[in-house]
Amino acid sequence: MSEFIPPAKPIIGDEEREAVDRVLRSGMVAQGPEVAAFEAEFSAHFVQGRPAVAVNSGTSGLHLGLLAAGVGAGDEVIVPSFTFAATGNSVALTGGTPVFVDIEPATFSLDPVAVEAAITEKTKGILAVHLYGHPARMRELREIADRRGIALYEDAAQAHGAALDGKPVGTFGEFAMFSLYPTKNMTSGEGGMVSTATPETARMIKLLRNQGMERQYENEVVGFNARMTDIHAAIGRVQLTKVDAWTKTRQQNAAFLDAHLQGVVVPPVADGAVHVYHQYTIRVAEDRDGFVKALKEERNVGAGVYYPIPNHRLPSLAPYAPGLDLPETEKAAREVVSLPVHPSLSRDDLERVVAAVNAVAQAGA
Question: 243-364: what CATH class?
Answer without folding.
Answer: alpha beta
